[in-house]
Write a structure and sequence with these properties.
alpha/beta, Rossmann fold, nine-stranded mixed sheet, 6 helices, 23% helix, globular
């Protein structure tokens, strides 16, 4: 257990969380480029049009096809459109899907049945998901429970860190600037721990017993 990113594609889901501009999209693009074979089918729900250079751009769910890389940049950015994306994705086999900015569709208490079915019922068919969000308060528990790998980038609020620490470990406090830790009872216990760098992050394999920090201020940058 050294923090290596050993991803069993078609079997394990990924969650990426962090404040805006901390490197989530870049990390997802790196995984898309280096960790997924070019022959593997990929669909991207591209809410903010950040993945246009990574596949064939389509504007409707109906235009998504199996095989190749399709980037769905729909004009209709409603929850209903996302449900259709998830529903059609659930009819596929051995495919990777990136769900960008799921906070635009989810709330903590919401249940998007088509999304939950992808996580709970389609893993045996090789439907693999990468979920990305900037808002920790919008992520339902069933999404976290269904993910094996977590990449958590810099966070702005102690409450965000408290929630992440419950399932990613106490090293999550290094994602918060030191001056903000001092105002929280738990955060003060980690006041001397180094901060992550601008695009540093915490990585956790949920099946293992330890989290790892990559990219520390005044430290060495590493990549799992």
């Amino acid at each position: 257990m050294n923090g290596d990113f050993n991803w069993k594609i078609f079997e394990e889901n990924i969650i990426m969380i962090g404040a805006p501009g901390t490197g989530k999209t870049k990390k997802a693009q790196e995984i898309l480029t280096y960790d997924i074979d070019p022959s593997t089918p990929v669909w991207v729900e591209d809410y903010s049009d950040k993945f246009g250079n990574y596949g064939y751009v389509v504007k409707t769910v109906e235009d998504l096809k199996y095989g190749g890389r399709y980037i769905f940049q729909g004009k209709d950015k409603t929850v209903e459109s996302y449900k259709k994306f998830c529903e059609k994705l659930g009819q596929q086999w051995n495919i990777v899907a990136i769900h960008d900015e799921i906070h635009q569709f989810n709330t903590k208490q919401s249940l998007i049945l088509e999304q939950r079915n992808l996580i709970q019922s389609r893993r045996n068919q090789g439907v693999c998901n990468i979920f990305i969000s900037t808002d920790t308060s919008s992520i339902p528990n069933y999404v976290i429970k269904g993910c094996t790998h977590a990449f958590v980038f810099r966070l702005n609020l102690p409450d965000d860190v408290k929630w992440v620490a419950k399932w990613a470990g106490a090293k999550a406090w290094q994602l918060l600037p030191k001056d903000k830790r001092q105002y929280d009872r738990i955060g003060r216990q980690f006041i001397n721990e180094p901060e992550v760098s601008e695009h540093g992050y915490l990585y956790r394999n949920m099946k293992e017993s330890e989290s790892y920090i990559f990219g520390v201020k005044d430290g060495n940058n590493q990549t799992p």
